């Protein structure tokens, strides 16, 4: 069965039009669906209508600062991933951002590779796989968790049955670790399943 990659929608909110255009081009080239706003007062309505996965938010903007925009976003959506960008990082704004569950806080001008790494981390944390390999890890992790729960086994019991650590089993279920064939074999035996059953159900 072909693995479908999810379409990830990103909203950029930055009063600097050039930065918006640059980031939009960069992200669209990486396969994301992107919308950019230079007016922070429009962000609230856009989040209500747009079904976004990630928001990239500038901190210092006229009309409305990034922390206030983030506060309003959190009133609408508690789960959406927000990455803060600022040319003027300071401890107070970093703390305020983290209290409102910003997933990262980056300094401008940003390094493109570092930015991509931050996005990749956000995607993994939110379960938004980007490559067929990451998507496969997610399918395997979800399937193992489902089978384990059907058999009413805890991670501790699975650890005893497989000889694998609780932490590794947890990482495999959350698609944060790439399981070896040997690990998958031990997990399949512990779940009284065939190894191919762990690759998802048709």
Fold and architecture overview:
By secondary structure, the chain is of the alpha/beta class. It has two domains: 118 residues, Rossmann fold (3-Layer(aba) Sandwich), CATH 3.40.50; 68 residues, Orthogonal Bundle (434 Repressor (Amino-terminal Domain)). The protein has nine helices and five strands. Strands 2-1-3-4-5 form a five-stranded parallel β-sheet, sandwiched between helices. Helix 2 runs parallel beside helix 3. The longest helix is centred in the last third of the chain and has 19 residues.
Q: Layout of SSEs?
A:
Layout: E1 9-13, H1 17-29, E2 33-37, H2 43-50, E3 54-58, H3 66-76, E4 81-86, H4 91-99, E5 104-107, H5 112-126, H6 132-150, H7 155-162, H8 166-173, H9 181-190
Parallel strand pairs: 1-2, 1-3, 3-4, 4-5
Helix pairs in contact: 2-3
Question: Which key phrases capture this entry?
Answer:
alpha/beta; Rossmann fold; five-stranded parallel sheet; 202 residues; 2 domains; 12% strand; 434 Repressor (Amino-terminal Domain)
Structural class: alpha/beta
The CATH superfamily of the largest domain appears as Response regulator
User: What share of residues is helical?
Assistant: 40-55%
CATH class placement of the largest domain? Alpha Beta
The CATH architecture category of the largest domain equals 3-Layer(aba) Sandwich
Number of domains: 2
């Amino acid at each position: 069965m072909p693995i479908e990659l999810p379409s990830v929608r990103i909203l950029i909110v930055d009063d600097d039009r050039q930065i918006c255009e640059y980031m939009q081009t960069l992200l669209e080239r990486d396969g994301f669906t992107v919308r950019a706003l230079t007016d922070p007062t429009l962000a609230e309505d856009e989040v209500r209508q747009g079904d976004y996965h990630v928001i990239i938010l500038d901190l210092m903007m006229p009309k409305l600062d990034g922390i206030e925009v983030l506060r309003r976003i959190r009133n609408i959506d508690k789960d959406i991933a927000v990455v803060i960008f600022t040319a003027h990082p300071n401890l107070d704004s970093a703390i305020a951002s983290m209290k409102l569950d910003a997933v990262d806080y980056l300094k401008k001008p940003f390094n493109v590779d570092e930015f991509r790494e931050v996005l990749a981390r956000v995607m993994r944390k939110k379960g938004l796989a980007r490559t067929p390999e990451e998507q496969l890890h997610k399918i395997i992790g979800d399937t193992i968790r489902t089978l384990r729960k059907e058999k009413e086994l805890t991670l501790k019991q699975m650890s005893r049955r497989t000889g694998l650590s609780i932490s590794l089993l947890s990482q495999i279920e959350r698609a944060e670790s790439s399981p070896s064939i040997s690990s998958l074999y031990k997990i399949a035996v512990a779940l009284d399943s065939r190894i191919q059953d762990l690759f998802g159900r048709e």
